[in-house]
Write a structure and sequence with these properties.
three-stranded mixed sheet; about 130 residues; alpha+beta
Length: about 130
């Protein structure tokens, strides 16, 4: 399976535990979270709407529904993406190991996760 994921979603998926905007979003996120753990899954990374965003009720005209929110999300993406080559297609399991090694403290993710509405429930953030 091939996935396209935003930079910040590389962190989100590691802390996902079934919360989301609505049932469609949760089902899609669950499916993608399972796929990213599977052998043979590859991932392309981006700072644009991805396979997770496609089910988000806040996505309008391929952007988050308000300009300020979209700027914040792209900033979160870019912080993660600064550590990776966006032109590379990654093996999912290897990519998530790299992400876990790089983003391994609350200090390291503070610019990303502190802006997130889910950080109080996120298992990835809580374990740091």
């Amino acid at each position: 399976m091939k996935l396209v994921l935003r930079g910040h979603h590389l962190l989100c998926l590691q802390g996902f535990q079934g919360y989301g905007y609505d049932d469609d979003f949760i089902k899609n996120m669950t499916k993608i979270n399972q796929a990213r753990k599977s052998e043979g899954t590859t991932i392309s990374i981006t700072n644009r709407p991805d396979d997770i965003c496609r089910s988000c009720p806040n996505l309008k005209d391929n952007l988050c529904q308000n300009h300020n929110e979209n700027k914040k999300i792209v900033s979160m993406d870019n912080e993660v993406l600064s550590e990776f080559d966006q032109t590379t297609e990654y093996d999912s399991i290897d990519l998530f190991k790299k992400v876990e090694n790089i983003f391994n403290s609350k200090e390291r993710v503070s610019k990303i996760c502190s802006k997130c509405i889910w950080h109080d429930k996120c298992l990835f953030y809580q374990k740091l």
